[in-house]
């Protein structure tokens, strides 16, 4: 057959080919995520014994296959749920074995005594479910639950901290001395000042002496250091200031978690507008949801009596959460050591995590309150091909900026406040916010004013203000070496395990920057801080921060590339040992959150905190560590389980093409990138933001899956998998109850 006789490609064929290519593009990230998780689990036993990937054996291959298959099974189950199907296929349910068990179950349930017992259990379960829903249907109720459940933490443990807050207090103290006219050493070979503890290269120091740095974020340094200085002036020690800082953070954590839980569980924006406005008797069709605060004192005004328990059940995704989701959320925050200990740990990561939870919930509110004419794009269940995408794009361009839906002023204020706290608590926050600004304008350009006020303006003011302070010489900026942990570990591992493989040209380029012998001596696979001479105890001067110049740093990347080319196995080992624990649920944390509860800084070097419940503090931290050491059950207390599952859920959302939802979940992927580039492997405080919002991500996935499910008998709409049962009573009947 000649080419001219071949059938021409039809539009239908081209559309099918485009759909297949789109499917391959969407499923590729899912496959890569499963393979990455399998690799991280497989290399764990090697690195626990300080081995190398070159020591790979058949056992590691079996670990890799098993972990990849488990991840793939989770993806398959989530995909079926996302498409409105049962996790167990109907073909399996029709098997002889399955029907035999089903027949036995029906026969057992047909027994009169068993039937009565089942009915009693169901009635008790329904009563408990109603109690849970009513106990969490308002934000103030969730605040009360969390405050009471967490009250023992600040009252019995007082405070939790490590070296960072002490370094910040030291920086502020030296700066205060300078402001009051005290002479202090600055740049000199024999001088040792706060900027040398987490060393910042001297070429970054301004000529005019300054002792404040942006190493731990300048705003937090001023707040924490100022509180410690005031405490010393009033009580003679830093301890009272640390206790106050922990108490303030504890209250902030209660408020952030309660606000986020209220948004995700109760969907408060679904309440009708007239529920919070004065009664209009000319509109009798509108029920009177406002009741007096106190009948004896009418001057106290009215309050809305409308709660989620008094609203008729709505269709997904606008259905409030059921009892199971509510109980799981509250139990996680009240019992998981990640959340409990983070409430009083005064270091930057927990503060950022709680602010991120608040910020993340506001994104969900904005996602759920878009205009109705955009609702068909929410799940992208129809017109998934390129043609449908182009049609929606053209329709969106035609709509332009008409009908802007502005969020309530309190939502915008909360959005702005959460953004500000994130910016002052973590330096990488501005990267996340900048990326979200771009995605927000692409996904929801109608509310660009909200994003300009709540995201762009705080970033410009705070990040730009810090940059101006650094450029003016008022404070010292961070050293670029802090963000090069993987490169440092590659060089140090090569110097320790294969020094002969380092090319001479690379040694010449590194000589002005590092002492390779000291790097080899300081190398530890879990942590890059010793390699860059961080810390105050037994400091190894491997990083020549006193004498290095900006020109010397230009050759750093070239030397690293030469070492990677000369010994790629060392480079792979350095990369994996620096990050595999974040995606391996079986790996115990290098530094868990219980470390801050009974660290030496709390138990030994504090002034009087160490004498308050000293043994109780050890008991609590020991219990958390023992729980975390239990196989499988202890995984629930570690952040890497939630990071791994979140990565899989995100991959399934890509496969299902839920682009608008992914735009709000994209910060979680960026946070995983932060973990990979962090100085330490499996450092639990870096995983707090992802762990705190994991339950909310699952709830969002479930709602959108039910919203897109076809009602064909395979998935019933009469009950909610989160534990809620559709209530056919009217609001008046529920109110009467």
UniProtKB/TrEMBL annotation:
Transmembrane stretches, start-end: 21-48, 60-78, 142-163, 240-261, 323-344, 412-439, 451-476, 662-680, 686-702
Tree of life domain: Bacteria
Positions of the UniProt region annotated as Disordered: 713-737
Keyword Transmembrane set for record: yes
Keywords, comma-separated and alphabetical: Membrane, Transmembrane, Transmembrane helix
Stored InterPro entries: DUF6020
Composition bias, Basic and acidic residues: 726-737
Full protein name: Beta-carotene 15,15'-monooxygenase
UniProt source species: Bifidobacterium samirii
């Amino acid at each position: 057959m000649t080419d001219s006789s071949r059938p021409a490609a039809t539009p239908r064929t081209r559309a099918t080919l485009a759909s297949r290519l789109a499917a391959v593009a969407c499923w590729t990230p899912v496959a890569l995520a499963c393979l990455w998780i399998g690799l991280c689990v497989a290399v764990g036993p090697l690195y626990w014994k300080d081995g190398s990937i070159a020591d790979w054996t058949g056992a590691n291959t079996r670990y890799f296959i098993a972990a990849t298959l488990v991840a793939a099974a989770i993806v398959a189950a989530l995909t079926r749920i996302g498409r409105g199907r049962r996790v167990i296929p109907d073909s399996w349910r029709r098997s002889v074995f399955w029907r035999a068990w089903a027949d036995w179950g029906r026969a057992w349930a047909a027994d009169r005594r068993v039937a009565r017992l089942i009915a009693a259990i169901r009635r008790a379960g329904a009563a408990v479910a109603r109690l849970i829903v009513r106990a969490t249907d308002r934000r103030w109720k969730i605040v009360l639950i969390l405050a009471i459940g967490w009250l023992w933490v600040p009252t019995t443990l007082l405070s939790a901290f490590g070296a960072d807050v002490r370094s910040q207090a030291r920086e502020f103290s030296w700066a205060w001395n300078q402001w009051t006219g005290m002479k202090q050493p600055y740049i000199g070979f024999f001088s040792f000042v706060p900027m040398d503890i987490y060393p910042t290269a001297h070429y970054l120091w301004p000529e005019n002496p300054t002792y404040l740095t942006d190493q731990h974020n300048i705003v937090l340094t001023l707040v924490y250091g100022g509180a410690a200085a005031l405490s010393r002036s009033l009580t003679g020690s830093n301890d009272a200031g640390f206790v106050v800082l922990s108490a303030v953070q504890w209250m902030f954590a209660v408020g952030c978690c309660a606000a986020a839980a209220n948004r995700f569980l109760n969907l408060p924006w679904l309440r009708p507008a007239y529920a919070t406005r004065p009664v209009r008797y000319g509109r009798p069709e509108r029920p009177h949801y406002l009741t007096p605060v106190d009948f004896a004192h009418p001057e106290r005004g009215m309050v809305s009596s409308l709660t989620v328990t008094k609203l008729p059940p709505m269709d997904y995704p606008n259905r409030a959460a059921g009892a199971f989701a509510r109980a799981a959320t509250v139990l996680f925050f009240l019992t998981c050591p990640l959340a409990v200990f983070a409430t009083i740990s005064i270091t930057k990561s927990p503060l950022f995590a709680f602010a991120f939870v608040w910020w993340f919930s506001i994104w969900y509110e904005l996602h759920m309150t878009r205009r109705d004419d955009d609702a068909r794009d929410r799940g992208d269940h129809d017109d998934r091909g390129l043609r449908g995408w182009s049609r929606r794009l053209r329709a969106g361009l035609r709509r332009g900026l008409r009908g802007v839906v502005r969020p309530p002023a309190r939502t915008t204020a909360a959005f702005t406040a959460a953004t500000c706290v994130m910016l002052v608590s973590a330096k990488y926050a501005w990267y996340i916010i900048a990326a979200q600004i771009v995605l927000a304008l692409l996904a929801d350009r109608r509310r660009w004013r909200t994003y300009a006020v709540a995201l762009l303006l705080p970033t410009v003011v705070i990040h730009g203000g810090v940059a101006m302070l650094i450029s003016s010489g008022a404070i010292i900026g961070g050293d670029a070496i802090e963000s090069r942990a993987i490169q440092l570990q590659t060089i140090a591992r090569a110097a320790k395990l294969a020094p002969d493989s380092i090319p001479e040209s690379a040694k010449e380029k590194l000589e002005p920057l590092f002492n390779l012998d000291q790097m080899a001596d300081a190398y530890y696979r879990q942590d890059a801080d010793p390699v860059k001479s961080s810390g105050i105890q037994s400091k190894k001067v491997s990083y020549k921060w006193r004498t290095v110049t900006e020109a010397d740093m230009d050759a750093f990347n070239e030397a690293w590339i030469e070492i990677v080319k000369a010994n790629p196995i060392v480079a792979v080992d350095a990369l994996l040992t620096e990050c595999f624990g974040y995606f391996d649920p079986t790996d115990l944390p290098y530094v868990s959150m219980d470390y801050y509860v009974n660290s030496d800084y709390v138990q030994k070097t504090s002034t009087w905190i160490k004498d308050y419940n000293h043994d109780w503090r050890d008991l609590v931290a020991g219990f958390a560590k023992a729980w975390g050491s239990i196989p499988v059950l202890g995984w629930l207390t570690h952040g890497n389980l939630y990071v791994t599952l979140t990565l899989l859920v995100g991959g399934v959302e890509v496969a299902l093409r839920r682009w608008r939802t992914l735009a709000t979940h994209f910060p979680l992927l960026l946070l995983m990138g932060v973990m990979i580039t962090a100085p330490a492997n499996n450092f639990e405080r870096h995983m707090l933001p992802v762990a705190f919002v994991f339950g909310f991500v699952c709830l969002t996935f479930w709602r959108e899956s039910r919203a897109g499910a076809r009602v064909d008998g395979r998935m019933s709409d009469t009950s909610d998998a989160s534990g809620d049962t559709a209530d056919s009573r009217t609001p008046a009947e529920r109110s009467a109850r």
